[in-house]
């Protein structure tokens, strides 16, 4: 059995090495893992953090994922879609605040009213920011035609989490009408269309093994992924998955540690990709996002959605920053980034170095 320092000093890692690192329990070993990940981050993507202002524009969703608080069958939430004007204002705010990019995220809808609405929005956002604001889309599975139209209208990055690379675990988390293979096909289409492509998984799902997580990392590598957005699974009280689980408080800290280990191993293994320190980390610990940066992440997605919509876009329980407006978020995050000795890449897109190399 190899020691932690032996694994961390290797040039390349095998699947069994990924598993060993994810299984680390000893505090000194885990600290060693984070330190190595931070070193790899410094060498490959630097210590500048890039902000993507996230606009959660609608909680209307045609899908019914068993873990998600805004799933179609959840009748206890009021559905909304933001007005075009409100979205344009949020994008303008992010641009003027010096955030180089935004993320447009929502429940999944493939109807033409929605896809056309997004296309128009993209064109207007690009126009009002002289083509300078980067736009990531996180709008679920769409047809090749829609993705092409959105790309031509100005979306250039797309985040589509595969949730897990284990097909049978995927199927257990979704109704039969949701297809793992179609999700993978969509991810491949995104790449072929020229999007900077991001994916990710939920960490600490019921019945997910450490081997599953190691396979997730291998999947990211095999598919030459540019950006990773992964975070801890957190139950939402109104979902079937939460009903099948015990008291989350009992394993919350373990969940956080596992998510941080995944970020660290991903950084060491994949090196030059962008990795987000997700809000879900902060739901588990007040300093969760700073911990994510120290474990190897380099992207933060401050919420720039109007506070009046935030309580309607709760994917999981205890989502943080519910009543902080965008200005408060900016100040708070600025301090958080400074507290770990890093700088913010204002007015820059902060593209993934992996993507730039892939294009050459
Ligand atoms: N509807 C689009 C989709 O599913 O790709 C984009 C929005 S969806 C809310 C974004 C991500 O939220 C999902 O990919 C999923 O990983 C995450 N998510 C949903 N419920 C969650 C939960 N209970 N805990 C942690 N993450 C969750
Ligand atoms: Fe809809 Fe996305 Fe939530 Fe699934 S994860 S129910 S597709 S918003």
What does this structure look like?
This protein is of the alpha/beta class. It has one domain (45-359): TIM Barrel. The chain is 46% helix and 11% strand. The protein is built from 16 helices and 11 strands. It has helices at 4-9, 15-22, 27-44, 84-96, 112-128, 144-153, 167-172, 180-193, 210-222, 240-243, 252-270, 279-284, 288-294, 307-310, 326-339, 353-359, and strands at residues 48-58, 101-106, 134-138, 157-159, 196-199, 202-203, 227-228, 231-232, 274-275, 299-300, 343-344. Strands 1, 2, 3, 4, 5, 7, 9, 10 and 11 form a 9-stranded parallel sheet that branches. The chain has a two-stranded parallel ribbon with strand order 6-8. Strand 3 (134-138), helix 6 (144-153) and strand 4 (157-159) form a beta-alpha-beta unit. The longest helix has 19 residues, at 252-270. It is globular and about 60 Å long. The N and C termini lie far apart (39 Å). The model has no long low-confidence stretch (mean pLDDT 95). Bound molecules: S-adenosylmethionine and iron/sulfur cluster (SF4). Iron/sulfur cluster is lined by residues 61, 63, 65, 68, 70-71, 107-108, 140.
């Amino acid at each position: 059995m190899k020691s932690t320092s032996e694994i961390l000093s290797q040039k390349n890692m095998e699947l069994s090495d990924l598993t060993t690192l994810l299984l680390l329990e000893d505090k000194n070993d885990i600290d060693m893992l984070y330190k190595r990940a931070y070193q790899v981050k410094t060498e490959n993507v630097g210590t500048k953090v890039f902000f993507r202002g996230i606009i959660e524009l609608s909680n209307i969703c045609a899908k019914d994922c068993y873990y998600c608080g805004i799933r179609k069958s959840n009748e206890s939430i009021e559905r909304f879609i933001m007005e075009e004007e409100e979205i344009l204002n949020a994008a303008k705010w992010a641009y003027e605040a010096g955030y180089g990019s935004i993320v447009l995220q929502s429940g999944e809808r493939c109807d033409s009213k929605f896809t056309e609405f997004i296309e128009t929005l993209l064109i207007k956002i690009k126009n009002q920011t002289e083509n300078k604001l980067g736009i990531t889309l996180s709008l679920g599975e769409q047809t090749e035609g829609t993705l092409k139209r959105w790309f031509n209208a100005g979306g250039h990055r797309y985040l589509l989490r595969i949730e897990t690379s284990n097909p049978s675990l995927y199927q257990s988390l979704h109704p039969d009408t949701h297809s793992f293979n179609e999700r993978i096909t969509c991810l491949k289409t995104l790449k072929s269309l020229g999007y900077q492509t991001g994916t990710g998984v939920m960490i600490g799902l019921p019945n997910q093994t450490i081997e599953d997580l190691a396979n997730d990392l291998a999947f990211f590598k095999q598919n030459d992924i540019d950006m990773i957005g992964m975070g801890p699974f957190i139950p939402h009280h109104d979902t079937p998955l939460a009903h099948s689980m015990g008291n989350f408080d009992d394993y919350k800290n373990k969940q956080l540690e596992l998510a941080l280990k995944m970020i660290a191993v991903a950084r060491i293994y994949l090196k030059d990709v962008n990795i987000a320190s997700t809000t879900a980390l902060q739901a588990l610990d007040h300093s969760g996002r700073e911990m994510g940066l120290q474990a190897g992440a380099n992207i933060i997605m401050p919420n720039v959605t109007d506070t009046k919509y935030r309580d309607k876009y709760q994917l999981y329980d205890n989502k943080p920053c519910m009543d902080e407006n965008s200005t408060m978020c900016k100040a708070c995050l600025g301090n958080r980034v400074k507290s770990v000795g890093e700088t913010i890449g204002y007015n820059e897109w902060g593209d993934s170095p992996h993507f730039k190399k892939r294009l050459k």
